[in-house]
Amino acid sequence: NREAVIRQNNITKELIYDYTFNKKGIKDSALASAITFDTRGNIIEELVYNDKKEITRKDVYQYHIQNLLSKKTSTMTGRFKLETIDEYDYDSTGNERTYYSYNSDTTSLTIEQKNYNEKNQVTELVIKINDNVPYVSRHYHYDEKGELLKAESLDQQGSWMYSTLYEYNSTG
Fold first, then answer.
1. How many CB atoms sit inside 10 A of residue 29's CB?
2. In what order do the strands lie in the sheet with 96-103?
3. What is the pTM of this model?
4. Which of 69, 85, 119, 156 has the fewest beta carbons closer than 10 A?
5. d(C-alpha 23, C-alpha 15), whole Å
6. Which residues of the chain carry a pLDDT beneath 50?
7. Around 154, how many Cα atoms within 13 Å sit in the side-chain half-sphere?
8. CB neighbours of 140 closer than 8 A, spacing ≥ 6?
9. Tens-place pLDDT, residues 118-127
10. What distance in Å separates the CA atoms of residue 45 and residue 35, rounded to the nearest whole number?
């Protein structure tokens, strides 16, 4: 568990590098991102860099008192400046119920709502984009052991688009 390793070792920052290789070995490396963690092991900030070592995106994360992600703010810098905000709501058992994604001027809004069965398994995903009517975009089907068997994707008119089938080997 990544969060447990981060907590146990008091890790506060992770630096990720991209490497370019040639036939003789490593040609060059560049900082790709820097991730900062809180004392619980949660990501609280991620900076993404371009090959000129400039920050191209900054993500800031906030958490509920129950340690569940409540908000992520992403700021794109450079040529295309854009800020998007993602917010998450949960039910009393910690299942993500509603996800909101919008830009800073609120001209774009997507709401996703997950519905669950009595076993806390997602059974359907309802999406609402801007002022359009909400629609069921996915149905999830499980077997008697609780394993996901099929996810059906639907268009805005409720017509089937495609299905993803899941198979499990003897180890699950």
1. 10
2. 13-22, 25-37, 43-49, 55-63, 69-76, 82-90, 96-103, 109-116, 122-129, 135-142, 148-154, 160-165
3. 0.79
4. 119
5. 26
6. none
7. 15
8. 121, 122, 123, 124, 125, 148, 150, 151, 152
9. 999 999 999 9
10. 6
